[in-house]
Design goal:
Layout (H helix, E strand, L loop, with lengths): L11 E2 L13 H10 L4 E4 L8 H10 L3 E12 L2 E8 L6 H27 L5 H9 L6 H10 L6 H9 L14 H10 L3 E4 L9 H13 L4 E6 L4 H13 L3 E5 L31
Parallel strand pairs: 1-2, 2-3, 5-6, 6-7
Antiparallel strand pairs: 3-4, 4-5
Helix pairs in contact: 1-2, 4-5, 5-6
């Protein structure tokens, strides 16, 4: 698959993570790597957190990059855990700051529930271990996955999700998250653009995904990710068709977490199809 490397073309990466959630690099390092990869406009979208944005913004300004405020909110729709990205919002919004506090409390409660379920399987002290791995980041399942790897219970984090933490597994706790419509409401109240993150990753039937998009649009959602990391051309075409069908702007991003994961490296994805209306036209 060809990679984007045209230095004279703007390159937007509007989905990435730092160690303020489940990434491994400081925000400044994420910005630096994005610059090296040719990204001209970057959004860091840490899970339920904006604590890394100030550092990233300073780093981006020093490198003459455009930086867009971002966040990825965890939420629930029809029993399925989904994510809504917020872009270009006011970080001082009282509504958003209260929402982040609420999400943080839910995340801590969820982590305790995950640890309790793992304890029933004979895996003791998982909460403390996961918190240590998370450090300053918002604790989540990837930190528990790394703990299971560190203890030699699984060979890698993918196996941790398949056995313990993925959908339908003991550590799959999602009932504490708010409805999608509420997450969209928070983003809109902060003056941002609500984007349905990586819809193809939810493994829904086409009819169910259409229902999600219908409700997301009705709630005030404005965009969806048409391109998320390296993906098959037919997936891109399918997502572009849905964006057009529902009148949604198209977003794109790597969903970067770790430099070792080449399929999600910053800026290394195919461009949006020409038929799409890019989400950045909302604030251009």
């Amino acid at each position: 698959m060809a990679l984007i490397d045209k230095k004279d073309s703007p390159l937007f990466d509007l989905h990435s993570h730092s160690l303020h959630s489940d990434g491994i690099l400081r925000p400044q390092a994420v910005v630096s790597r994005a610059k090296e990869n040719g990204v001209t406009t970057l959004a860091i979208t840490d899970h339920d957190s904006i604590s890394g944005l100030a550092e990233a913004r300073v780093a981006a300004a020093a490198l003459d990059m455009q930086f867009i405020n971002g966040i990825e909110l965890s939420c629930l729709w029809d029993g399925v855990g989904v994510h809504v990205v917020g872009l270009n919002f006011d970080t001082g919004s009282d509504v958003l700051l209260a929402a982040i506090e609420e999400q943080g409390q839910a995340r801590v409660a969820r982590a305790a529930m995950i640890a309790e379920r793992l304890a029933r399987l004979g895996i003791a002290d998982a909460l403390a271990g996961a918190q240590e791995i998370a450090g300053i980041g918002a604790i989540g399942r990837p930190h528990f996955a790394q703990l299971l790897v560190n203890r030699g219970l699984v060979p890698n984090t993918s196996a941790a999700f398949k056995r313990y933490l993925g959908a339908g597994k003991p550590g799959d706790v999602k009932q504490l998250w708010p409805p999608v419509a509420r997450a969209v409401e928070w983003i809109n109240a902060a003056g941002g653009v609500a984007v349905l993150a990586h819809p193809e990753k939810y493994k829904m039937t086409r009819s169910k995904l259409r229902r999600l998009l219908t409700e997301f649009r009705a709630a005030g959602g404005q965009a969806m990710e048409v391109v998320s990391g390296r993906q098959a051309p037919d997936v891109t075409r399918s997502m572009a068709q849905l964006a057009a069908e529902f009148g949604l702007y198209a977003s794109c991003g790597s969903d970067f977490h770790d430099p070792a994961q080449a399929w999600q490296d910053l800026g290394r994805f195919e461009p949006l199809p020409a038929s799409c209306e890019p989400v950045w036209t909302c604030w251009a």
